[in-house]
Amino acid sequence: MGPLSSPSPFGSYPGGITNFAQAAADAQMRLLGRQAAFAGPICTGLEPAESFVLSLDSPSLVEQLRQTSKPGTLYVLDSFPRIPAMLAFPGPFGVIEHAAQSDVAPEKEHGTQVSESARSLGFKGNIIGINLLTERLDLVPRVRGMVDRDKAWNQSDDPEVLSRLLDDDLLENRLFTLEKVTLNLTQLAAAGIKHSVINLSMGDGQMSDANRWLNRVLPVDSTKSEEVNEAEGKAQRVKYALALGIDPSLFDAEDESVRESVRAEFVQKLLDRSELVEKSPAYLAAKEEYDLVVNLLSMRNNSIVVAAGNEQTLPDFLVDLGRSQTPPQIPENFLVNSLANQNTLVVGALDGESVAEYSSRFPSVKVYADGKLGDIDGTSFAAPRVAAMLADLYGSQPAARSQTEGKFFESYCYTINGESRLNVEAAKLGLAGSAQRAAIPGLHP
Questions:
Q1: Which residues contact residue 194 at a Cβ distance below 8 angstroms, ignoring those fewer than 6 apart?
Q2: pTM (2 d.p.)
Q3: CATH fold group of domain 2-214+274-432
């Protein structure tokens, strides 16, 4: 298994990562010693039909964040269009570090939709989007490595090479998600934001690994014929089989029981490899860095809201895919979003009055909210509704995080079978009763 077999680096703090006082102090020292400036401009769209770009020689990102922060601000870490003009929702809005040119229509960008969902209940406070699709120099080598690995994967038929590339790919994809989120959270922490909310309608984990390899071995590309999809999927299944030490010819065995057995083995080995990623030193170090900065932000009375994910039905699909007398065993933490920890508020989705069938369920999920936005669904749109309510509470009366989150559950949630759910009508009434906050300070021309 190569690099994934090394021991865990946990224990670098007495008592492990649970010693948050020391961990937070260390994180603070790292922030003070880290270069805080971004090179890019800030792009803002303050009204539906108005947008402009600040000067390239404007202050650093951290200084801009410091100037524009105020209690009750909702920060949305996501992907945004280059110029967020003609947005479908009103209210003060800005995007920091706009992305490279995107082919996606502005109203279809995920961050635009997440922000629209945050506004849908009547939230009138500041929303600042921080674009994760930036070409930061310190992340480019990892992106370049992903491209190089894909090329090497497609060119090789050597089982040892493919096995190494598979391990590297599983690890690097997970590191990329953690590092880009940690990078932006670090900037927010360095800016000293307080009494605000950060929305993370994203995530990664073993379920994301499974989705990535499923998209390769069972492609469903609407731009290609069924025959082409099947041929490409079969070629990828052969490569994965070689990487996993499986004879690919067994997929076409005459005996159905043999075909079922090899499918089960195929799925199980991929699940096992994915689970091993979370024991690698590189992953644990990246996760520790993320946990530290989340803890630091939480200690400053900010709430970090995380979407649970939309993979609840995936384990059953994988078991069915590998059906045999010994079906694959789904790991205990398969559905857990790697961005969830004890200092985040994880949100699942409702479909009407019931928990949505797709909404991932794991112990860290604390509350459920409506996951529908127009004709699309997802926990991505449930999370910002909870985030908006928390931001409104912080803006109305800045208080300790525990007090604010407690008031949110007491004022705006009801419980069914021990599960907290956002009461939409109570939320709308609460937002309607809040005084409209001033526009983002310092961003108007």
A1: 69, 71, 300, 301, 302, 398
A2: 0.83
A3: Rossmann fold (3.40.50)
